[in-house]
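dumping this here before i forget
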Amino acid sequence: MISLFNITRFHPNKSKPNIILNNVSTQFPRKESIGILALGGAGKTTLARILSGVERPDSGHIQRHSSLSHPIGSTAGFHAGLSGAENVRFLARLLRRNVKETTDYCESFADIGAYFHRPVGQYAPVMRARLGFAFSMSVEFDTYLSDGITSAGDHNFRDKCEAALLERLTRSGLILMSRHARTLNRFCTTFYALHVGQLLPCSSAEEAQDILDYAGGYGNTYWNEAARHAG
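structure:
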């Protein structure tokens, strides 16, 4: 279970604070596949960073009673001067995973040849993405976190990524944030809409899309009324 209690996050500006999350409280059950639909700039990345512990809220707190991954495919923890193999070994030790098994898995899954043993700073973006996704799939978590990423690389590698993620979801949960209802439908069973700092529970990804469409067309009056009925 991951529980959010009165989470608020804002970015200061000259006139008034830009509120990203406004007093959000909710619970994400362990091993449930959660889909959060949001438009660009609505706060998906901020929410992902707060959930993973990379960023702190301005107020409120989170309780994590199960293991939660960093965002799928992230290479934020990789050191450019170390090789892919060295990065994987370091992170495996940090997470107290079997170093050899993790390294072997990542080398095979990423399939970047000799570059696995070269500095990550020499990688093309697609190679970084392949290694980041490989490492995400190499570690078993109770819940995986994704800021919209479910695959990486070329068509064949994307198929491989999605198959690996779907296999993980037979025994793990997912919190997936996306702009696209179709993506959420592929991986999720529980849905929310994220707008003007609030998370609104929805019965389907299509309902979340409709609510965001109407909020965009009719302003926040519609959104506030929908949120009031949901509460």
